[in-house]
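User: Second chain of the day. Same drill as before.
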Amino acid sequence: MKKTFFYFAYIGVEGDSASDLMERLNYIFDQLRFIKNTEGFEEFNNKFIVYTAPKYLWELIDVYSSELSFGVYKKYCGNKNLFEYPGFISMKDYSSLLDDDDLIFYSHSKGVFNKGLIQTGIFKFNIVLNFKNKLLNQLSDVYFNKAGLFPTVSGTFWYNFFWIKAKFISKLDVDVNNNRYKFEQLIKDKKNSTGLSLLDEDFRKNIGFLNQNEFSSHELNQNDVLRELYKQIGTKSNEDINYDLIYSMTSEINKKYKFSNFLFVSDGRRVFFFDGRLVLKEKKSSERGLQIVRCEFKSVNEIVFYVFSGRKLYLNFENEKIFLDDKSKTVFLAEKGNSNLFSMKFNQMFLSLDDPEYLVLSNDKNEIFTIIE
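Assistant: Same format as last time:
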């Protein structure tokens, strides 16, 4: 089974300022150097870069790419902004030279317009954990056509880093489109909607919500463990990063955020328990602490937390729902759905209410409430 690497680089178009172009070019060359020095790079049979850049930069890009052991897939390089079309059409074109089950890995110049430690960390995280991954051999299963770190139920991958079988991409319709998000949805597959996840179970547990069948980009981007992990990875070089190190870092960060597992509210906010507080976090990251004043057992099926702000949080077992009374209105938080939210025995669950750190609002796969022993 052959492996082929594709990297799409958006550098700019004719008319962009020279300073902007050189800044992007240096950023992309840094990414290419990181890719080249990542364990597993040598296992690719061919490595290609496809780019969008002004013509006067083409020779420079070609020469430097060659020095870094990348071939240039010249057929679809250009100087007009076609979003990620050049990368996808190049993979489709090249797939005709491969066997059906040969693998192509797609990556791109993540963060070139939004530079920072988190963006750099996301890029390095996706490269390192995709290149040398013990779960990748499961892609030989006929059921799977694609794999990556963050699969969605629609068959795509968050951040658009993924492995894909040559046969699958050869059958995709790849056309120019002025909607850049089209290329984040291009690999959808109605017959096999979900791709193979390359994060193992222990890793997913450390992140928490990734054990769910579905999660949103908001959950992914606002996850405290991942954001801290990306920041730390963003500062490290190839020599310092490997799968085992990233796993141990994630485990340590997870301990730091032990009490910050969260539950998303339907309007985009989230509720989580941290340092003795129930906290309602707004979309724009402003936080309002709900300091618990006392709790009251209203009935066998309902408990009310009274908080310092005057709000009341209702936990109703009979209807299996959670409500937050915001004085003037009641905000619906969660209901049972497909998961077993209230499966724990009543007395066990609230055995230590006088010491509220034992109650954690969690967003794990099978429960909302987790007891920390």
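The first strand starts at residue 3 and ends at 10.

User: Great, on to the next one.
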